[in-house]
Specification:
single chain, about 300 residues, alpha/beta, Rossmann fold, eight-stranded mixed sheet, two-stranded antiparallel ribbon
């Protein structure tokens, strides 16, 4: 869970309306004074917005506001655990989330970060909606599940077979919790996390793989500044998948960093300080010039904090 340290001036929470009128949960963390930029976070399968403490605590002192939503069927948001009718629900929910942020923080630069399944949602949204995505400063994919995944082939086959006749059929993903991090304290916290779940439905499985195939087929259309961070020993989302996607992206403003020995949740792994520095460096390089000047004290530009 989030450690609300005194480095975080304020934390807020609320809901926004997703597809079909579903009230989806989100929370946000704000620095004490001016806001230089915003980072919006989309979590992975079975996760929730409390899993990014290290990101929040690193960026708040740097005058970033951080927003985290909880996907339908996850965390404190309603919906059957691990179920969607169609991938477009994730896509449109993300669009509504970004509209909420723009309403609350008008004119403030926005970056978006997706982790694991969340990275697939982010990449799909940006490729499907290039005009809306052009308003973003850049995208970060943490351990994106773009290739082979650490789920039993039998489970995957069963999901594909049942998607049409029994779309809500639910299985445990069977993902080993220890594949998330090398930090024993983190794993102990995961085991006690009541918001976490390990469920996935047949329909989610088929929608996920169809979306991954579509993303890879359209990688050459990518236009936004892109950062990919991946653990070299990731057994949940094998790093080869993100490397293939990265090589297909023609946009020159791209960077991929692979951390030898690191596991899937690189924001919570033993080397997380290194990951946070790399993330911050990339964000700083992609801030609008007037915001960079603000950070140096050369301009009196300030974005609203609410």
């Amino acid at each position: 869970m989030i450690d609300h340290s005194d480095r975080i001036a304020s934390r807020r929470e609320g809901t926004f309306q997703g597809v079909g009128g579903l009230d989806l949960y989100y929370q946000s963390w704000h620095p004490e004074a001016k806001v230089r930029a915003i980072l919006a976070i989309v979590h992975g399968l079975g996760g929730h917005s409390d899993r990014y403490t290290n990101v929040v605590q690193h960026l708040i002192p740097k005058e970033y506001t951080v927003y985290g939503l909880e996907l339908r069927g996850h965390g404190r948001s309603p919906g059957q655990r691990g179920y969607i009718n169609a991938w477009s629900e994730f896509r449109e929910d993300l669009g509504a989330f970004l509209e909420l942020i723009q309403t609350q923080q008008p004119g403030c630069p926005i970056f978006i970060l997706g982790h694991s399944l969340g990275a697939v949602i982010v990449l799909d949204y940006i490729l499907r909606y290039p005009q809306q995505a052009s308003l973003l400063q850049g995208a970060i994919a943490l351990a994106p599940t773009l290739g082979k995944v650490g789920i039993s082939p039998v489970r995957l086959l069963l999901g594909k077979m049942l998607s049409r006749v029994w779309p809500r059929f639910t299985l445990n993903t069977g993902i080993d919790i220890s594949a998330g991090s090398r930090d024993e304290q983190v794993l102990a916290a995961y085991a006690q996390d009541t918001l976490r779940h390990t469920r996935a439905t047949a329909r989610l499985a088929t929608e996920f793989f169809a979306t991954v195939d579509w993303i890879n087929a359209h990688a050459t259309d990518w236009q936004l500044p892109l950062l990919i961070l991946h653990g070299g020993a990731d057994r949940i989302a094998l790093p080869g998948g993100s490397n293939i996607f990265y090589q297909r992206v023609n946009c020159k403003d791209k960077l991929r960093i692979e951390y030898p020995g690191a596991y899937h949740d690189i924001q919570n792994d033993l080397n997380y300080p290194e990951v946070m520095v790399d993330l911050e460096d990339w964000l700083e390089r992609h801030l609008p010039s007037e915001v960079v000047q603000l950070g140096r004290g050369n301009a009196e530009l300030e974005f609203p904090s609410s």
